[in-house]
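> example.struct
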């Protein structure tokens, strides 16, 4: 189920849109070895690229996860995030059909 209002709220912030852009082609934006094709990118790599505080990045990532646009996976001590392409496609379809 796609919550359009939650997604619109998450996408209202330009940094959150930037995170989604980075994760669309992670090998282009993150150091080789940081990208795990099965799990995504570690959240600390997003923090390092952004130059923002860890707590700020965590809050933005949490908003994207809550909206369903990202999925998070814990691997040992690391938290990886990746785009939820299924939700992104469904949201884009809803926008195309209803707006």
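> example.seq
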């Amino acid at each position: 189920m796609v919550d359009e209002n939650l997604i619109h709220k998450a996408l209202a912030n330009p940094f959150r849109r930037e995170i989604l852009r980075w994760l669309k082609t992670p090998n282009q934006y993150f150091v080789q070895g940081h990208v795990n094709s099965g799990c995504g990118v570690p959240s600390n790599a997003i923090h390092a690229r952004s130059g923002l505080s860890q707590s700020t990045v965590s809050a933005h990532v949490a908003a994207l996860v809550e909206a369903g646009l990202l999925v998070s996976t814990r691997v040992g001590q690391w938290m990886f995030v990746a785009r939820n392409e299924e939700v992104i496609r469904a949201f884009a379809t809803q926008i195309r059909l209803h707006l």
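> remarks
The chain has six helices and three strands.
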